[in-house]
Design a protein that fits this description.
The chain is an alpha+beta fold. The chain has three domains: about 160 residues, no CATH class; about 60 residues, SH3 type barrels (Roll), CATH 2.30.30; about 140 residues, 2-Layer Sandwich (Alpha-Beta Plaits), CATH 3.30.70. Helix content is about 60%, strand content about 10%. The chain contains 18 helices and eight strands. It has a five-stranded antiparallel sheet. It has a three-stranded antiparallel sheet with strand order 6-8-7. α4 packs across α7 and α7 packs antiparallel against α9.
């Protein structure tokens, strides 16, 4: 194709009387003007007609991905290749130039073509990254990291090809030289290489993806991942600050990823309330009668009372509490909490649901609530948790129980003014 165009232009120049009668300087000047004019005309033709038509088609199309390519200037960057290709085709016609100058210009032109072509490919990759970032289905895929890997590969390939063109050497010559410099490169760029390898591990194993909530106390990171690159991870903390984590830190150190919580649709509540041990005791008949009116406890009290009465009749006729079984206020309270949580509309029944008694401490008897809500959004989750514990603290007195708390200033003052017994 190039040879045919050159033959056509050479034949036209040979048939031109003006050029045949001109001296070498005039001939050379006319060729330069002709070459630049054809290059400019080809660029304007592509930009004013081809690109304009393609942009018009993009505006009228129903899809949006083509608009992204237009916004990144992909068409304009590829259009810059056209005038350079025209000059490259016409360059051998400059017979008045020495072979050395023609060779130098040719190599410079070829190197520039390679650089501009890769620049246009970079624009395509940037457009692809933006398109995938807008779609929820591809947001969690490590596409950005792989695109950066492709860019890095293209950068090294472009550098080697460009240097080989300018030096008129084979690319294999420079590739063989890289082996000698590998140790030196690894010593200088150790952190960069570690981050690069870690970034590939994060991307391929999907340890961290965009939109994840991660927590890494060592670096003060606690928020949503906004960007995952080959060397860094950008986290927007909940206090609106930004933390940039090195990729290798996420591979070498421990961090917490809350993605599982988001994907499961349930968020855990694990909180204890401390009961004053002095308020724990057996229920009296009057208290049992009063508690039997609580709907959530009717079946429990009936079944438990039957079991306890049967046991006491069969094995012991002594009515003293220490010699017989009896219902305690804290045990009945635990049964009430379990029944209350099982019928709560915001508590997940298909996940762990526990009300358990922990080992006593100096702060009293801990009763732990271990459940999952059906709401993972922070504000709504906190509302559900607060409502549950508001209710729990409000019903404590109905069971004759008291919550433990450290003595405050008012408590100490009341003890000071309390008259001696």
């Amino acid at each position: 194709m190039d040879q045919e165009l050159r033959l056509i232009i050479s034949q036209w120049l040979a048939d031109s009387d003006t050029l045949n009668n001109a001296d070498s300087n005039t001939y050379n000047l006319i060729l330069v003007v002709l070459c630049l004019s054809l290059a400019a005309a080809s660029y304007l033709l592509v930009k004013r007609i081809v690109i304009k038509a393609m942009k018009l088609m993009s505006v009228r199309s129903k899809v949006t991905w083509d608009d992204t390519f237009v916004a990144h200037g992909v068409l304009e960057k590829f259009a810059l290749l056209v005038p350079l290709l025209v000059i490259d085709i016409l360059l051998p016609l400059f017979t008045v130039l020495s072979p050395f100058i023609t060779d130098v210009f040719g190599r410079l032109l070829s190197a520039l073509l390679v650089v501009l072509f890769v620049r246009a490919v970079y624009a395509v990759l940037n457009a692809i990254a933006e398109i995938t970032d807008k779609h929820a289905a591809t947001q969690r895929l490590p596409i950005t990291s792989f695109l950066q890997l492709i860019k890095l590969f293209l950068f090294f390939v472009t550098a080697i090809i460009t240097i080989s063109i300018l030096s008129n050497q084979s690319p294999l010559y420079f590739l063989s030289g890289l082996g000698v410099a590998t140790g030196f490169i690894m010593l200088i760029f150790k952190d960069t290489i570690l981050g690069f390898v870690a970034g590939i591990q994060l991307a391929t194993n999907q340890m961290v993806t965009k939109g994840d909530w991660i927590q890494m106390d060592k670096y003060g990171a606690d928020g949503t991942v906004e960007e995952v690159s080959l060397t860094t991870v950008k986290v927007r903390n909940f206090d609106k600050t930004i933390t940039m984590l090195p990729a290798y830190a996420l591979v070498s150190d421990a961090f917490k990823n809350w993605r599982g919580m988001s994907e499961s649709g349930g968020r855990r509540i694990k909180r204890s309330l401390f009961i004053d041990i002095q308020s724990i005791g057996f229920l009296t008949k009057e208290e049992l009668q009063r508690l039997s009116h609580i709907h959530l406890l009717k079946n429990y009290l009936a079944d438990k009372s039957f079991d306890i009465n049967t046991f006491n009749l069969d094995f012991n006729e002594d009515e003293q509490a220490v010699n017989s079984r009896g219902l305690t206020n804290i045990g009945t309270f635990r049964a009430y909490l379990l029944a209350y949580l099982q019928q709560h509309p915001k508590v997940r029944k298909d996940m762990t649901l526990l009300v358990r008694q922990l080992a006593p401490t100096t702060q009293g008897m801990p009763i732990e609530i271990y459940i999952f809500t059906d709401e993972i959004r922070w504000a709504f989750y906190e509302d559900i948790q607060a409502d549950i514990f508001d209710h729990i603290f409000s019903v404590l007195s109905a069971f004759g129980l008291q919550a433990f708390q450290q003595p405050s200033g008012n408590d100490v003052q009341a003890l000071r003014h309390k008259p001696p017994q």
